[in-house]
Amino acid sequence: MAYWLWRPTMLRWGTEGAEAVEPLPGDDLKPLPAFQSTRAITIDAPPESVWPWIVQMGIYRAGFYTHDWLERAMFRARYVEGKHSATRIHPDLQDLKVGDQVPYGGGVCATVTGLEPNRHLVAGEQFILRPLTGNRTRFIIRYRGAGYLSAAAQGAAPDAPAVTRALASTLQKVPGALLLACAVDLFIGDPLHHFMEVGVLRGVKRRAESSYGSATAGGTSQTRGARGHGLMSPLVLVNACPSFRRAYWRGKYWSEVADVTGWSGSAYSTAGSRPRASASRSSVPAGTLTRCAPVLPMPEP
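Above: the chain sequence. Below: its structure as tokens.
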């Protein structure tokens, strides 16, 4: 019962107004989807600073900036920077075009069917960027389709792992397998997809804001430095000192976990530490950063 009450909120996490139901680029590819979710977040950086992070996504590419530890556990994911999603923009991964394949892991790929630089990318899911006033961006992700297992079976490459090929064969040949796959997607796939997709939203936000803020602060610092009274940006300080950088990004991770799970409390949880016993669960509005978070595996730096 609790799941059914929470599910509508889960499927439109972070959306405002009519964002969850309005037409978006790529909707025409799946006119009658069995599953649809729309999630969104506001990024304090212009679309031009967000787009490079979007276009380089993919397993064996820059990753999806979400819970890398789970992707590695599920299908031994690897990325351009090794065992974690990219922490910088890679120029050699920026030349994506319609017809290219974006690896999603486990031998599953999605074909790029729509692409407009700085506006949208359609590849399995729909990644939408909308400019806002004040050099901000509205980042929207929508999924529409028959289900996650069905999509994986359809996108399985000929050289996919045996498990993926067996799944595709089962869904195609075994009577009732598609119905069972829908049930698995409903009760397991949807919550898992929510957990990973919110991670994508927050991961892109964190990286785009950091790179844009550093670039902006760097220009301001140089101008002020010429006058003899420059101030170092906090983001520049964080990136300059390894110990500060680790503490900063771990703190961001706990805030992300708290936002996804709705964990909050009066006790303050420092980066990588356990919350005190006084922490409790309560309703947390989407987009709110909280002080306490449950103990989950920390992704590798």
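The radius of gyration is 20 Å.
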